[in-house]
Amino acid sequence: MQSTASLFRALLAVSLLAGCSSYRPTPAAFHEVLDQPYRLGAGDRVRVTVFEQEGLTNSYSVDQSGYISFPLVGAIPARGHTAQQMEKEIADKLRQGYLRDPDVSVEIDRYRPIFVMGEVGAAGQYSYVPGLTVQKAIAIAGGFTPRANQESVDITRDINGKVITGRVVTSDPLLPGDTVYVRERLF
């Protein structure tokens, strides 16, 4: 009888702990996007170079609607496109009565920012640089507070128009537009 009551209490404790946990494994798409070419989004700025056309060569920002406003041809969709796709799109538009054989190059001039929140010294918006990891972003944001959970953090990421949150270790890489949330530790 005593062992049955002890077993029941142990099972109840385990089920309560399991029920309190909101942890879900990070979806596979969360890490697969790291191996794909970078896709532009609102807040990015691209440098467009049109060979021998100084008036068209400039930096252009991707607006909230996901377009850049390019001289002569107007709005060009950028959200979800790679730099190579943008090169082709701009060249195709310029061929339609403006230039015979345009040579267009597009490179990322400035990435959209990342956001760091939670148990860090100075939560806020920070510039993204290629190679940025969670640990580096936290360092830029003033480091962990004494109450911070330093083992894993939550990252919210837009993947193909769908916002996904996943729990990762601090050595994981970040992408432009990511939001890092450092949780408070329990003990």
From TrEMBL:
Residues 114-163 form the Soluble ligand binding domain. The keyword Signal applies. Coiled coil: none annotated. Pfam families: Poly_export (PF02563), SLBB (PF10531). The lineage of its organism: Bacteria, Pseudomonadati, Pseudomonadota, Alphaproteobacteria, Hyphomicrobiales. Transmembrane segments: none annotated. InterPro entries: Poly_export, Poly_export_N, Soluble_ligand-bd. Keywords: Signal. Residues 35-108 form the Polysaccharide export protein N-terminal domain. Residues 1-18 form the signal peptide. The keyword Signal applies. It comes from Mesorhizobium salmacidum. This is Polysaccharide export protein.
